[in-house]
């Protein structure tokens, strides 16, 4: 029997990509799922996929008050997953603050506000999981901003392990995954770039959202996983 059965899982950024895949997997595991996203239309589409047992609310992850209203609507919870991110392909020497600040702010402040506001709403010793990415530990051309935001979230998690105890805190660090976020990052030459990335990996492919979702559920369901950055990248950090 799944260890998540009967639990309440709240996903900030749960209407597409890794967040939606995790919502689907958690629903299949018997959890009650609450998802949040900025776009009402996409939220409605996600709820159709998740079925009548799921719940969803619009949330602006860049707005502290909106996150608080979302969590108020979600109610008590056992597990929180925070996925919002934005990729800005730019070289530091050519970047402006106006270009990079939205990407830095989105990932960090979504994690910061969601975790501090969710912790008091948790039933017992729940879990908080953030998403980062391999750019936080492996230099990747044009992804310095993404790397900095990933590293910031990972550092935040380590402090929260003691501050929010007994709530467990972890980070899920994916490699390249076939999501709308990746499509927007790679642009018109997406297929060619994905093919090149896949060719460089031992498995000759990029990841699937469902594979990352499996790892997210593991972090939620294993009561001894705490203070860890779990990398799931097809060995990208080794090649």
From TrEMBL:
Keywords, sorted A to Z: Oxidoreductase
Chain ranges passing through the membrane: none
CDD domains noted in UniProt: SDR_c
InterPro entries the UniProt entry points to: NAD(P)-bd_dom_sf (IPR036291), SDR_DHRS6-like (IPR051122), SDR_fam (IPR002347)
The keyword Secreted is annotated on this UniProt entry: no
Domain of life the protein comes from: Bacteria
Keyword Transmembrane: no
Pfam families for the chain: adh_short_C2
Family statement: Belongs to the short-chain dehydrogenases/reductases (SDR) family.
Name of the featured protein: SDR family oxidoreductase
Native species: Saccharopolyspora oryzae
